[in-house]
Amino acid sequence: MPDLAFDNRFLAELPGDPDPSTHTRQVLGAAYSRVLPTPVAAPKLLAYSAEVAAAIGLSGAQVESEDFAQVFAGNAQWPGMDPWASNYGGHQFGHWAGQLGDGRAISLGEVIGADGQRHELQLKGAGRTPYSRHADGRAVLRSSLREFVCSEAMHALGVPTTRALSLVATGDEVVRDMFYNGNARAEPGAIVCRVAPSFIRFGHFELPASRKDLPLLEKLVDFTLARDYPQLTGSMEQRRAAWFIEVCERTARLIAQWMRVGFVHGVMNTDNLSILGLTIDYGPYGWLEPFDPQWTPNTTDFEGRRYAYGQQPQIGQWNLSALAGALVALFPDQAPLHEGLKRYASVFAAEHARLTAARFGWPTLGEVELELAQDFFRLLQRDEVDVTLAFRHLADLDLSAPAMGTLAPAFYAPERIAKGAVDWNAWLQAYAARSLADPRPASERRAAMDAINPLYVPRNYLAQLAIDAAEQGDVSVLQQWMATLRQPYCVQPGRERFAARRPEWARERAGCSMLSCSS
Ligand code: AMP
Ligand code: MG
Known about the structure:
The structure is a single chain. This protein has helices at residues 9-13, 50-56, 60-63, 66-71, 141-157, 202-210, 214-228, 236-261, 312-327, 335-360, 367-382, 387-394, 415-419, 421-436, 442-450, 460-471, 476-485; strands spanning 5-6, 16-17, 32-34, 44-48, 84-86, 89-92, 95-99, 105-112, 118-124, 163-177, 184-196, 263-264, 286-287. Strands 1-8-9-11-10-4 form a 6-stranded antiparallel beta sheet. Strands 2-3-5 form a 3-stranded mixed beta sheet, with no helix packed on it. It has a two-stranded antiparallel sheet with strand order 6-7. The chain folds into 4 domains: 5-197, no CATH class; 203-358, no CATH class; 364-437, no CATH class; 460-506, no CATH class. Strand 8 (105-112) and strand 9 form a beta hairpin. The two termini are 32 Å apart. Helix 5 (141-157) crosses helix 16 and helix 6 runs antiparallel to helix 7 (214-228). 40% of the residues lie in helices and 14% in strands. Bound molecules: adenosine monophosphate and magnesium ion.
């Protein structure tokens, strides 16, 4: 049994629910409920992150032991673990939803890892909690695999995120109606152990605020400052002010990164936004393939497209406004709340401009560059072009003789290449002219572009291929794909299939371009 140092501050410093049962209820005046995971039939480790294990202080042999699979499927606990589900609310699709809470997430404890950092270990799909409402507390293999892969891939891409330690099959079946259309089926269950310094969400603050429970709200804020923002100094009032502004800045930087890599979260409800500015709660997320700001993978959101790719910056601000609204009672001077929201807009704009310039290989995004960038995105959208491959191939362009053939592999419909050639050639000429003004040698420019434009992203159809194989008991596709995603910016010979644009069969297939909240 590994010797891990647990320091469960969330439990020690915040008020808990005295009721030990798991029956569904409103939990008042408490930030969490202690609850044990519900055992499963036959735990089996499917995959793990060696990097996360090492940070925590677990060896490969320890993770591959039978004991690990039991603990990370919820069948047993190691000394120092003291499982709980936390209590939060949230705005779902723009509407206040009241208490939500960890309905299927159970935290095992906070470990001080081999790296000296705090790592909260949280099982997702470990059984019912007081916050499960009518649902079963479980997760299916397809959604757990998707969360496992994407959290590790995002980290490798340089995007702030919760991490994933392990993916364990439960041996139990879980019944899901994937598109809520009366076609329920039994699917294999699995549990991810996700890892972050804190799983506190905007919704943690919204819930006590909505109940006018100021003492709990204040405890949560001060706890977050003490545990998660120890670097902030000054009086309590100064620290709270600096904290809100910092949360706004982090959220701005986070969403600018999502826009860079083409990530669409899919369910940016306020319960799914992290107080640390991490990507959290991978559900019906997706990766932009043909460029389209209106695209969302989430079928539940097809009508309103509230959480489509191009909406994300604006929704970030909406969510921060909801957080500000929850905190207002603790801010006698509301100026920092307004300042934070303004800062969100300015930091997002600056960060987005910086990243956009870098994607094109430019030092800055001036007026000329901005217009060129907008034209490029317009052409990508008009001609159904893969955004990841387009940027990657743009780096290959011969600036002294720019040819459209360089971008051809990024087109989904080959006939558009000839049809759109006049506009594309004009754009490429202008782009080359602008880029030639760059004094850097071509090789340097190219390396800089390749370092910011990934080649391998967790494309939706690739996730589905890994899921199909894993459901048949074959995790080799998952393993190879995951290994590739760990170096998303480096060409990996022999791994071309993990960079390929979506094949035609995946255009309308469930799981490839259409996902729902059912997971
Ligand atoms: P999500 O859409 O994943 O952010 O979940 C919204 C809320 O529903 C959260 O409170 C979740 O804990 C809860 N929830 C989602 N799926 C389940 C499930 N299978 N069992 C219990 N609670 C769930
Ligand atoms: Mg959630």
